[in-house]
Amino acid sequence: MENVLRPLIVVGGAVVLTLLIGWATDLLLRKADARHSETPLWGLLRRGRIPYQLVLCAALLRGSYDQAELILDHRVAVGQILTLVLIGSVAWLVVQIAAAVVQTTYDRYARAHHDAARVRRVRTQVSLIMRVVTAVVGVMAVAAMLLTFPAMRAAGASLLASAGILGIVAGVAAQSTLANMFAGLQIAFGDMVRLGDTVVVDGEWGTVEEITLTFLTVRTWDERRITMPVSYFTSKPFENWSRGTPQMTGIVYWHVDHSAPVEAMRDKLKDILRECPAWDGRAYGLVVTDSTPNTMQVRALVTAKDADDIWTVRVTVREQMMTWLCAEHPYALPRVNTADAVLPPGGIIPSQDGAAAAGTNRRLHEPPRTGPR
Question: Is the pTM value of this prediction over 0.85?
């Protein structure tokens, strides 16, 4: 009977004690969350209740397993497994606590600051910091697990002797990976590009969707994803339309006939913008920027609060202006000139070849021949 009750009491007591402590801790966190609703810290800490209970259970079982006198032939193996579980659950709990603290800090900063650019910058830094913390904690947990094996501790001395050579070899073999990691840190703290920024890379327009230590993902306007190494943004030029203020200026071009009513087009542009919700009202303008033998180029300048709105304003102005020209001023559309040539005064075309010019003049003055030749 003692051989049955002893392991039952030890193991059952550890499990019951773990559940009681976990329930009491969760109750305290809920009360704290209800009392301090201005901060999400206590609610976020509740997400770590599973690794917390796993740490308690593994620690209690590891400390009291010898008194249970259960599976004596495999006591060392069971103790080793419990130690590994304890190390892994501690690492998991540390990551959850760090995530709760970092997320709370970011939420508090986002509520206190209304500058969207600064909030995106902090969000990018927080995201990369959490990835670094997770990687460091994971590496330390794996190292601690390996050091629990006697054979690994014995091999540690010989590994330290060759650590310098291994470091050089690893650095040469993984220099591109290390370059990307340092580029990721440079992006995070150098404020070059942030999550949510509107960028143009390799001729593609999109929004930065994800930034890691090694790669960056851009979501294009047609919902494609472009993944590229972060070192691209530290070694090549790119357009960041969200850096500084998100306000933008857009340009719309038309090619119209020389007789187009430019002043009426200015008035129509004003009417179109007044009815366009995406226009921010900062500025607008319409001028003639170029002229060719057949057409002239008219440029409209419009403004909006961000890249999405500037696109909407541009397409709206372009469409409604062309519709208005077709309906009200069709003569202003580009035309191909098929009229007869007008001779200069005197009816003589200047030419270096007098005979050729005279022949040309005769042909121009000859009446058309309608009969058969």
Answer: no
